[in-house]
Fold:
Amino acid sequence: MRMTYIPTNPKPLCIDLDGTLIRTDCLFETLVGTARKNPATLLQAPVWFAQGRPKLKEELANRFTPDLENLPWNQEVLAFAKEEKAKGRKVLLVTASHRIIAEKIAEHAGIFDEVLATSTGGPNLKSKNKAALLLSRFGEKGFDYIGNEDCDLPVWEAGGAAFIANSTAALERKAGNLGIPVKPIGERKTSLAKAASQACRPHQWAKNSLLFVPLMTAHLYTDSALIFKTVLAFLAMGLCASSVYLTNDLMDLESDRTNQSKRKRPIPEGKLPIHIAIMLVPILVVTSFCTGWFLINPTFTFLLLVYLLITSAYSFHIKHKILLDVFLLAGLYSMRIFIGASTSCPQQGPLFEGYVQPSNWLITFSSLFFFSLAMAKRYAELYNLLAQEKERPSGRNYHVNDMPLLMQFGVTSGFLAVLVMALYVQSGKSTSLYNHPSALWLVCPPLLLWISYIWLVTSRGKMREDPVTFAIRDKLSYLVGLIMLLAPWLADPK
Structure:
């Protein structure tokens, strides 16, 4: 006699998709992906949305499919679903995402018996609409459901066991107030504030310390009002830079998820929702430019706009151009010096009136120095690829075979920067600015040591990030920096 297997739990297990099975939202994944392929389609999005959310989801899903393999899957939910499936339980994917995307994800996961999703012409399968559909299929308390947000409360009320993925204390309290006994799956959701802060990369703001260089080299560091304006400029430029980092992460979402280190950033990993990142970009930009216009001066604001346009061009296009990307990256460092020189301009008056002109020595040195660091960054990326047995970084036109040449470019440029510093010490310019210019020789040996050290670390594959970020966490870099700051003081500025 043939025996029929009876599952331990006959109730079907219904699993939400966005934020539950994956730590992202398919609507915004397809929106960003579509914009990356063809920015002009963004102009059509409001027209589709006016015809209803299902129409918008369908049009975007037809134009872009995310890289399913590298999506930020919620491994705890996936493992739980596989266990229940192995017990003979029916598992359904029930989502407000469009059926086009939902079916592809379900096929990739390979554990779902059925897909219930939003379809064009039908309701947006979310919240009460989702609850009504499941009630009609399985009856009250006839199914268990895994969700992750407030809109899932009506579904949990209608169903049996309530499971929360990416749980938050606030959501658990709301469920408790409705008398819903919830069971968290996996760890609690990362704080949005923390994730947003990480995505903005405030540690990268250290690069904006270059804004203070013109004041230091022009011996204006005793002007407290000017120092205060430069501090404001530091904050404004930091906010502007963070908006670019967020935009860059959104545009590089697919390629970052294939990168061992970048995939751990908050947006690719799904800790910071895409729609939150999109909203943050204009907020940061507006705050940055309002600070520049109202609290600093129009010249700074104008240069900040130029900086934003150049960095945006870099993020969208130039970073894919071999060598040109490195030249521009190095140029953006030097541009910070030019921007810092603008804080001395008055609030009223023509542009660039009162501008502190950086010397040719300073610009030449900074260009060579930062070109070396930019090359070190590219070399480190290729080294990490080589360790993964890959030949070409996603979105870049470099090849691992370029590594020896990139090192030659970088080391030569770094040593030339030291030579420029040595020539400056011997020049009449240093004599006119310092009573004891020979003390500036103290800058050259530690600078030569640091550049050699950076390239040695990079060549050994220990440079996991860009050299500036590495220096922020490196003790030797702080010692070298202290000696280099001490030298001008010993030189006795006039």
Summary: Residues 1-6 have pLDDT under 50 and may be disordered. The two ends are 104 Å apart (CA to CA). The chain is about 55% helix and 5% strand. Strands lie at 13-15, 91-98, 114-118, 144-147, 162-165, 182-185.
